[in-house]
Design a protein that fits this description.
Layout (H helix, E strand, L loop, with lengths): L14 H8 L6 E2 L16 H13 L12 H12 L4 H4 L3 E6 L1 H16 L5 E5 L3 H9 L4 E5 L9 H8 L7 E5 L12 H14 L2 E6 L13 H9 L3 E6 L12 E6 L3 H18 L6 H10 L2 H28 L11 H4 L4 E3 L4 H11 L1 E2 L5 E3 L8 H11 L2
Parallel strand pairs: 1-10, 3-4, 3-5, 5-6, 6-7
Antiparallel strand pairs: 2-8, 7-8, 9-11
Helix pairs in contact: 2-11, 2-12, 3-11, 5-6, 5-10, 8-9
The structure holds (2S)-2-hydroxybutanedioic acid (LMR).
Length: about 400
């Protein structure tokens, strides 16, 4: 039965984890998968998470199922985090959260919901986007299209994006990255979000906002500007939120699908359908990550501790962005890579070609996605001189 099955290459991002582990170069640098790293290259458990886990261990009294929508305590803290504590959308009970196995699980729920409830509608993703968007939406049977996002000079192509959005057929779904665009790091300004809102409204398009990096760009509320704007001004919005990065709980698979509908009645109808999608995929989400998040956000002291640590992570990344460009000055390459200091979030679309990325890996043990996407959190003050030298060598 299996004779005809062909072997396929592994995932382009996750495959880098294994390749990096195997490399024996003592100077190797991991700029691959999107996890935060401290100055020693470690991905530590946040202090607030450790404390929350200690409390959970002490107080947990059952491991029973938490239901297809997940724990209500998780929705109660995540909805205000995403939509704002004073959100009119929440006051009108127009939003519902369904806990999911990570942001990827939320995207999968969204994809299956769209395929089942909005048959025939296409989905539009930025070019480039997180490669897994392609797989998730096409495997759900949705027709995938692209709109431009970066130009030939590796800059945000906002006019190209807007012009393309204006031609999308009515009722199609448009995937937008709330902040920290993956893979480019180019984010929309508030004015640009307003323009996007105008087009979505005019063309009657349904936004699906992928919000995987809240707090890694400018701040928890600042990063939510576009999400909150669309949720408040439009009748219907789909949001996929992740706590993997901002709580550093990657392996706990903690995210949620937020469905915003016109009114409470429609929201409950939609919510009932999402429960079926969750049930058919995995039944109930894993509980532990959501419990950590609700423990932290339900306690003022832990919340303050977590916010402080998140700010430290964001500030570190933004400092490293500037220091990376400075490290390239002696090689006359600072202008060429100046975009790295302007981009936001964990990733930078560096403009390095796939051939240059291959040389960095083979000659210097520096690992990044072949598209030229670098995880900026993998930079450190120790490895920046080495990185700069290597980048200069592959630019020769
Ligand atoms: C990434 O883009 O590196 C992360 O979102 C991890 C993943 O699952 O690809």
């Amino acid at each position: 039965m299996f004779e005809h099955i062909e072997r396929v290459p592994g995932d382009a991002i996750l495959g880098l984890i294994e390749a990096f582990k195997k490399d024996t170069n003592p100077q190797k640098v991991d700029l691959g998968v999107g996890v935060y790293r401290d100055s020693k290259g470690n991905t530590p458990v946040m202090r607030a998470v450790k404390e929350a886990e200690a409390r959970l261990l002490k107080n947990e009294s059952t491991k029973t199922y938490i239901g297809s929508h997940g724990a209500p305590a998780y929705s109660d803290v995540v909805l205000p985090m995403v939509l704002g504590s004073d959100s009119p959308v929440l006051a009108a009970k127009r939003a519902s959260a369904t806990q999911s196995p990570g942001g990827t699980g939320a995207l999968r729920l969204a994809a299956d919901f769209i395929a089942a409830q909005l048959p025939g509608k296409g989905i539009w993703v930025s070019d480039p986007t997180w490669p897994n968007h392609h797989g998730i939406f096409t495997s759900a049977g949705i027709e995938l299209h692209k709109y431009p996002y970066v130009d030939a000079d590796n800059r945000l192509d906002f006019s190209g994006m807007l012009a393309a959005l204006k031609k999308i057929p009515e009722g199609d779904v448009v995937v937008l990255h709330a902040c920290c665009h993956n893979p480019t790091g180019f984010d929309l300004s508030q004015e640009q979000w307003q323009e996007v809102l105008g087009v979505l409204r005019e063309r009657k398009l349904l936004p699906l906002v992928d919000f995987a990096y809240q707090g890694f760009g400018e701040g928890l509320d600042e990063d939510a500007y576009g999400v909150r704007l669309l949720a408040e001004k439009l009748d219907e919005v789909i949001i996929t939120s992740s706590c993997s990065k901002n709580f550093g709980i990657y392996c706990e698979r903690t995210g949620c699908l937020i469905m915003v509908a016109k009114d409470v009645e429609q929201m409950e109808n939609v919510r009932s359908q999402v429960a079926i999608v969750a049930r058919e995929n995995y039944s109930n989400p894993p509980a532990h990550g959501g419990a950590i998040v609700s423990e932290i956000l339900g306690d003022a002291e832990l919340t303050a501790m977590w916010r402080e640590e998140l700010t430290e992570m964001r500030d570190r990344i933004n400092t490293l962005r500037r220091d990376f460009v400075d490290a390239l000055k002696p090689y006359g390459l600072d202008q060429k890579y100046a975009c790295v200091a302007e981009q936001r979030g964990m990733f930078s679309y560096t403009g390095l070609t796939p051939e240059q990325v291959d040389r960095l890996r083979d000659e210097f043990g520096i690992y990044m996605v072949r598209s030229g996407r670098a995880n900026v959190a993998g930079f450190s003050h120790e490895n920046l001189p080495y990185l700069a030298k290597a980048i200069a060598a592959v630019n020769d």
